[in-house]
Amino acid sequence: MAESLELDRTLLKPGMRLAVAVSGGADSVALLRTVVDAAPEIGLVVSAAHMHHGIRGAEADADAEFVAELAAELGLVLHRKDVDAVTEAREQRETLEEAGRRLRYEWFRELLEAGLVDAVATAHTLDDQAETVLHRLLRGAWTEGLSGIYPLLKERRGVIVRPFLGVRRSEIEAWLSELGQSWKEDATNADMSYTRNRLRRELLPALGAFNPQICAQLANLATLARDEEAYWQGELMRILPHLLLPGRPVRGGGRSASTDGREAALALEIERLPASAAMRRRILRAAARELGASLNFEQTERLLAMCGPDGSRRQTLTATLRAERTPRELRLVKSNEPRRDRRE
Questions:
Q1: In this structure, is residue 4 part of a structural domain?
Q2: Contact status, residue 268 vs residue 243, Cβ threshold 8 Å
Q3: Radius of gyration of the chain (CA)
Q4: Residue 167 above 70 pLDDT?
Q5: 251 & 147 share domain
Q6: Is it the case that residue 194 has pLDDT exceeding 80?
Q7: SS3 of the chain: helix, strand, coil, percent, to 5
Q8: Are residues 289 and 203 both part of a single domain?
């Protein structure tokens, strides 16, 4: 019998009721079989979970039937959810891929909240990690984006785990072939209108010509970025409460919140900001998030410059967010009334 694929067992605990998300593709089929093999030794109670997205017609029906048969063959309970991803994408103004992912994770959380399982395992691989990091890099991600796919997501009740993040897709397909285990191919994986497919089939192979270990290198970058992000987030949470000031200063001391319900504001005392540009960027972005705004790199750099001795006194950063500089403070003001974007 073929030797089992490597699982990250640090994510799997004795007594855990684990639902493996199975699409019918090679990765998820291999994860299910590997987890079932390891279950007696670890002490897992395993089930399978399949979502029918309401797309691809008879092909998707065949995938669902294949997963049901595999679960029955392995003696597993099958959780199934049918959704209409096309309608959801249209109503939420998302891509079909975004809607499908959101619906899946909402369902995973439903399974956890209902107490049916303690954890849900998804079959993300090292290749998926590399594709994710590269995709986010191309889109201009910050460090948290380069962290890629996290091995473990803590939910309000239970966890979502990715025990296959160290395994290559080629290893999986070779293992299944040796085992004589079939799987289903999703025709959309060959659709080059999807960015991820172009990354997988065009860009990563091209980069592999320069470095055959490019997937491993990108996965390593994700690990480094996650650890760096955890450290900086810890530092940020430690100092941020002492830096954020509500509203505006008033004569005689103290501060007043705006009485205008159309605005929200907070400030940072410039002399108290750390000297590190790395930490200042994080503080400025966190301050904007407190007001419900998300800053890109260029907007953050404009704010960073305002903290300097020659910084401008006023900037309109987005349609609803502006910054004001006084001799002592940098103030962010969020308005519900969009303004024309300008630089001052």
A1: no
A2: yes
A3: 24
A4: yes
A5: no
A6: no
A7: 50, 15, 35
A8: no
> Which residue range is the domain that position 210 belongs to?
9-230
Structure tokens that stand for 89 in this block: 């994408």
Q: Among 4-18, 20-34, 95-109, 235-249, where is mean pLDDT lowest?
A: 235-249
Q: Do 41 and 149 belong together in one domain?
A: yes
pLDDT-based confidence at residue 152 (cuts at 50, 70, 90): very high
Give CA angle at 93 (188, 150), nearest 5°. Answer: 65
178 Cα distance to chain centroid: 33
- 195-234 pLDDT tens trace: 888 999 999 999 999 999 999 999 999 999 999 999 999 9
Angle at 31 between CA 167 and CA 114, to 5 degrees: 125
Q: How far apart are CA 335 and CA 330, in angstroms?
A: 16
> What pLDDT, on the 0 to 100 scale, is given for residue 96?
87
Query: Is this prediction's pTM over 0.90?
Result: no
Q: Which residues pair with 343 in a beta bridge?
A: 315
Query: What angle is formed at CA 12 by the lines to CA 7 and CA 18, rounded to 5 degrees?
Result: 105
Answer yes or no: is pLDDT of 280 > 90: yes
Is residue 287 within 8 Å of residue 244, measured between CB atoms? Answer: yes
Distances in whole angstroms, Cα of residue 207 to Cα of each of 210, 214, 215, 236: 5, 7, 9, 35
> Residues of 119-138 as b/e, b for ≥16 C-beta within 10 angstroms?
bbbbbbbbbbbbbbbbbbee
pLDDT value for 186: 79
Counted domains in the chain: 2
